[in-house]
């Protein structure tokens, strides 16, 4: 019996890349590849890349260097690059890194088995064509149903918003939504395999099916998913504030399975900056959505994204961002210094703030958010939370789960409890997680 081939896979970036990597693992298992965490023992190395930040391409080329040395010792090693940097670079990547065997873009996962087979036969290839056919979802495999407590389910791909700073429409393409029937079929298969929580995934789930007459819209899709037996909790990401409808807000009041958490990126608290970003809403309109969500679900937890130092942001605009953060009271916030991406509108803007000024603003923002996060975590002390047990913690010494509000929680218990929703009393709120103890009947 021949020894199984080994796949080493690294994933960078957003949840969409994580979901794509799950599909890659399924595809490669179909070719006899088993995953390994050690690149030295791999027969196939794949990088699933992200291009959202500046110098992403240079980072990928630099990262590939460590695999080049492995390949010198193991000439048969196949190296492939996929994801958003691959979509941007295409055949240039094969020329700049001659030890790379294959490059596959964001619409080309369905070609991966053939590309790997060609690489095994000594052929190099690049596939980065966009697929505009509305049936392209049928070409993409489901990730394996077996195992896991919580899984991503892709409901749409691409984005039509063209925010001035964002590379996503250029590397993921325009919006296309998967049929509700296909989504529900995958959710049912996952539920039958023991999955308890699904996270519906798209670049902008709020505009799901907006270009497909006759399909349910996103609020109705949530209600359909909530009817699937075995699914205890539903999440979704990511939402664009301008497309968040009152009907979607009402789902947080009406659907017990819908987790009381939303990732709602504001990006700035300045109307002038938001207009330059082409975000399609004002700070007051964003805050009105936040207020409506809090009214529908008083326990809801907010996370979001903020960009610091966008071209034209001065101190006054930055203080407006700080004021918006103070009003929302985010549980967590992903914050970054603006970085220009080639091909985006903002790359044409004059950038008059110094790097030192941007860094100082980012540090102030993050220091303020750190205090808010700790205060919010401490506010849970003494409360009983519904925690979905995902398995052992990273230390292996306790169980790890998440509250409905997406607060990571550790507590003592039997690993066999994975997949169960338990009552957990919070005994301590720390900076990055909660500590608790199971409430026994």
Structural write-up:
- The protein is an alpha/beta fold and 441 residues long.
- It is 34% helix and 22% strand.
- The strands form 5 sheets. The protein has a 6-stranded parallel β-sheet, with helices on both faces. Strands 15-16-17-19-18 form a 5-stranded mixed beta barrel. A 3-stranded parallel β-sheet has the order 7-10-11, with helices on both faces.
- The mean pLDDT is 89.
Short characterization:
The chain is of the alpha/beta class. Helix content is 34%, strand content 22%.
Strand content: 15-25%
| Low-pLDDT windows of residues | none
Helix content: 25-40%
Output the structural class.
Answer: alpha/beta
- Average pLDDT confidence is 89
Q: Determine the number of helices (DSSP H or I, runs of at least 4 residues).
A: 13
The radius of gyration over CA amounts to 22 Å
The gross shape turns out to be globular
Largest beta-sheet characterization: 6 strands, parallel
How many E strands? 19
| Strand arrangement, major sheet | 2-1-3-4-5-6
Q: In whole angstroms, how far apart are the ends?
A: 51 Å
Task: Looking at this protein, list some descriptive labels.
cytoplasm, 5-stranded mixed beta barrel, 6-stranded parallel β-sheet, transferase, alpha/beta, single chain, 4Fe-4S, 13 helices
